[in-house]
UniProtKB/TrEMBL annotation:
Name this polypeptide is given: Cysteine hydrolase
Organism whose genome encodes this protein: Sphaerisporangium album
Isochorismatase-like domain: residues covered: 10-100, 118-187
Gene3D superfamilies: Isochorismatase-like
Keywords: Hydrolase
Taxonomic lineage from the root: Bacteria, Bacillati, Actinomycetota, Actinomycetes, Streptosporangiales
Residues in coiled coil: none
InterPro entries the UniProt entry points to: Isochorismatase-like_dom (IPR000868), Isochorismatase-like_hydrls (IPR050272), Isochorismatase-like_sf (IPR036380)
Signal sequence region: none
Matches recorded under Pfam families: Isochorismatase
Keyword Acetylation carried by entry: no
GO molecular function, one term: hydrolase activity
Amino acid sequence: MSETPDPRRCALLAVNVQNDFTRHNSLHALPGTDEIVPVMGAVVDGFRALRLPVVHMVRLYHADGSNAEVTRRSLVAAGVPVVRPGTEGSEVRPELQPPDGFLLDHEALLEGKAQPVAPREWVMYKPRWGAFYDTGLAAHLRALDVDTVAVIGTNFPNCPRTTIYEASERDFHVVVVSDAISRIYPRGLDECASIGARVLTSDRLLDWLRAAR
């Protein structure tokens, strides 16, 4: 592990950028997310163009709520079909998908398998807020010789922030993409910087990556 972030060994983690959480007409949409999906898509496209790894981390809730967080279990079990496997709401936003698109392989994902969707691009299921908790993400990244992760996605106070801290705990360098994470706020950015994360806008991140090619 290098002492500083290495743009040649950087992977992108796109957290929970799913229809149910992002579309403005969804009952479960997070405020301010739909508006920045184009920025998220531009970041994903930039990583693809540089042939750097991309991992889409998704949530999937069984209809009975059995795999949901305790705070959401009763809501899901009551029949609210949020990111339910097999529904359109569970799918990754088209703006972040490769040109040929893809549908989630819900069965494989729930078994903990990484679903390849394009060259150097995968989807993985996460059972809780953070992308590293009880998943094979860290091992997957190590196998790709990744030492730095850039984080974009939905709802900073929950899943992106937890993912940032989990990545730091596993000795990955972290880049917080400040204009590609919804519901982010200055104090949160300061707190991420205080644990060593680098805070960059999407344009500055892509410039940093391109300069290393």
